[in-house]
From TrEMBL:
Ranges that cross the membrane: 644-662
Domain of life, per lineage: Eukaryota
Pfam families: HTH_animal
Protein's UniProt name: Reverse transcriptase domain-containing protein
Ranges for domain Reverse transcriptase: 1-347
UniProt keyword Transmembrane helix present: yes
Protein's UniProt keywords contain Transmembrane helix: yes
Length: 663
């Protein structure tokens, strides 16, 4: 019943899904994706999208990479050697009972991705020739588990440091009642390139001292320091065909980087700020958000540490800090909500859950009320918000209602930390699509039926909490952080004179060529919908998802890491020997089909992930995608699963589908 209703909305010709780009806009989007002369990036601050000349982007990148005190070119990918070193440390630690087997499995990364460098343009510094903030994308890298594990130990220590600021509300709470003496200066300092300015030896020494405060064994403490030393000394990345090693800094993309930088700056403050005799005479308050410092003082600190440099702003009247504007009025600090540089709010007709579109303006009004000291200043900022959101298609009546609702709050009410209730329901996280609300309704409607399935009832004790992540938008599509000019193209597994033709073809060298369905496309077993094959493949191609068809029209989707001809030979053997454990063999026997009637073709070749990772895992995901897309799960097709019941398997396929397929 559940599967039938889901299929009904999935294949309904009148389902509520439509493209929000015209054909001309799609054409322009594809041209921009292929244009190697420009590089489209997210700005370092704000919501702006920056279109840069590729030559200037690369020039800025190489300007930084040519700094031999920070970076060193490598001859090859060092991943295998690093992996061996990590495994050796983890194994010794496990044998000494310092970590559990679970910790070992978490820290070990058998299929790491290659860390990749990209730059975020600092257009707030220079609009015409912006410097770039170097960020190493380490998601899935060999260092990510180590970094997460280490951060779990260091983050609580970083939160307890003397000058620590959690966020803007924390900052407002700490300074809103501050009384200023006459002539006091509001000051802010920025640590120039903090992440790339911490010497490895100094940083490791600081962390070792900090770990002394934890009640852990000396051996375990040394293990944590070894993890940090590996992260710092082996921190490599890939850029434009070359591997580099970072010699001094910690990459901004590392999970442990904020805690590491916070603790290093705390040690710096203990040595050169709090212990300075001038501090007691000139400092009224001192707070820091990683590398952004707010204080009331007039002294220079640049001479204490040669690698740590500060840029300072000060005023007796007003100062910007974080996302608020502070002004001095009658000996007190008055707060103003600082407008963002680009009012790039979502359009009211944007493809997002309705509750998000309804709550977005209200959240911004609350944000403005929280960051302003009085209602007069709030009214000024909120009127600007009404103008901004009106341009995005929101009705003025709705916006005015939100404005008045937020106005009724006092600032101190909005500054209170929100206590999150413990959620016992297991979240089911999927990518939002046009059918997501209907799927949620179906699951809620038939939850009592789904609970009769043993595996689902064991997995979900209560109704799953349906949570959504957004699908890819135009910015995600155009701002790819891969090597400029090296976007992946359809793979061709043969040599040709001229442009090769994509599709499935016979290899001409095996006994199974006679059953191959030849062509550049394949059809849906039920609807007849055509799909393109985006590679030239044949019987000898490995790492493929394939489609089998029987004479009665039913389909079977499978995958193999070996060549297709080897897998087809196994299917034919099962049919000949009537191996009933195989759904293909069982169906052929029951229907009276013969081996000679079996037809097959490759529908997708799964290439090795460009930046590494498990190719086999990706192959399994693509198989699951095509099982759902082509509706080959029994009884509509020949696919079965012994480990999961039809209900559980359908729910699993649904989750995968919503995660990877945007309607």
């Amino acid at each position: 019943m559940v599967e039938v209703e889901i299929d009904r909305i999935r294949w309904s010709p009148n389902r509520d899904s439509q493209h929000n780009l015209t054909l001309e806009q799609k054409r322009v989007q594809k041209e921009l994706q292929k244009d190697d002369t420009i590089s489209i990036r997210h700005a370092d601050k704000g919501w702006a999208i920056v279109v840069m000349d590729t030559t200037l982007y690369l020039k800025e990148a190489y300007r930084q990479l040519n700094n031999e005190s920070h970076y060193k070119k490598l001859d090859c990918d060092p991943c295998q050697n690093i992996q061996k070193e990590i495994k050796s440390i983890l194994y010794d630690t496990l044998m000494n009972n310092l970590i559990s087997k679970r910790d070992y499995n978490f820290l070990d990364c058998p299929f790491p991705r290659v860390p990749h460098l990209y730059l975020s343009p600092k257009v707030h510094k220079d609009l015409n020739n912006p410097p770039g903030r170097p960020i190493v994308s380490g998601c899935g890298s060999i260092f990510q588990p180590l970094s997460i594990f280490l951060d779990a130990h260091l983050q609580p220590l970083a939160l307890a440091t003397k000058s620590y600021l959690r966020d803007t509300p924390d900052f407002i709470t700490k300074i809103k009642d501050l009384i200023l003496p006459a002539g006091a200066f509001l000051c802010s300092m920025d640590v120039g390139s903090l992440y790339t300015s911490i010497p490895h030896d100094d940083g490791i020494e600081v962390i070792f001292r900090v770990l002394q405060s934890l009640e852990i064994s000396d051996a375990y403490r040394l293990f944590l320091v070894d993890l940090l030393r590996l992260i710092l000394s082996k921190n490599y990345f890939y850029f434009e065909g070359t591997f580099y090693l970072q010699l001094q800094d910690i990459s901004m993309g590392s999970n442990v980087a904020p805690s590491y930088a916070n603790l290093f700056m705390d040690a710096f403050e203990e040595s050169f700020v709090y212990s300075d005799v001038v501090f007691d005479h000139f400092v009224l308050t001192w707070f820091r958000f990683i590398d952004d410092i707010f204080f009331i003082w007039t002294c220079d600190l640049d001479t204490h540490c040669p690698t740590i440099k500060f840029t300072m702003e000060y005023s007796q009247h007003q100062l910007h800090f974080l996302d608020v504007l502070l002004r001095v009025s009658e000996g007190a600090i008055v707060l103003f909500s600082k407008p963002i540089d680009r009012a790039a709010y979502l359009y009211n007709n944007s493809f997002h859950p309705q509750h998000l579109l309804e709550n977005l303006p209200y959240g911004q009004f609350l944000y403005a009320r929280r960051n302003t000291s009085n209602t007069k200043d709030y009214d000024k900022r909120s009127n600007q918000l009404i103008q901004d959101f009106s341009k995005r298609g929101y009705t003025r009546n709705t916006l005015t209602g939100f404005q008045q609702k937020a106005r009724s709050f006092q600032q101190h009410e909005l500054l209170k930390p929100k206590l999150r209730a413990t959620q016992s329901r297991l979240p089911c996280v999927t990518t939002y699509s046009a059918i997501s609300p209907k799927v949620r309704h179906i699951i809620n409607k038939h939850w009592s039926i789904l609970q009769t399935d043993r595996k689902i009832s064991n997995l979900f004790k209560e109704k799953p909490l349906m949570a959504y992540k957004r699908s890819r938008n135009i910015a995600d599509i155009l701002t790819k952080n891969i090597d400029v000019g090296q976007q992946e193209k359809p793979q061709v597994l043969a040599s040709f004179i001229g442009e090769p033709r994509m599709g499935m073809y016979r290899c001409g060298h095996c006994v199974h060529c006679s059953g191959v369905i030849v062509g550049p496309t394949f059809s849906h077993p039920r609807s007849g919908k055509k799909y393109d094959i985006h590679a030239r493949v044949n019987c000898q191609t490995d790492h493929v998802v394939y489609l089998l068809k029987c004479p009665c029209g039913l389909g079977y989707v499978g995958q193999t890491q070996r060549s297709l001809t080897v897998r087809i030979r196994e299917h034919k053997s099962n049919i000949r020997t009537c191996r009933f454990q195989s759904p293909i063999a069982r169906h052929f026997s029951e229907s009276g089909h013969t081996v000679a009637q079996l037809r097959y073709m490759v529908i997708e070749w799964v290439r090795s992930p460009k930046r590494g990772g498990s190719r086999d895992t990706l192959l399994g995901k693509r198989e699951l995608h095509w099982i759902y897309e082509l509706q080959t799960l029994s009884p509509l097709g020949l696919n079965e699963d012994r480990d999961l019941s039809p209900f559980a398997f359908a729910l699993l396929i649904l989750i995968v589908f919503l995660s990877v397929f945007l309607l």
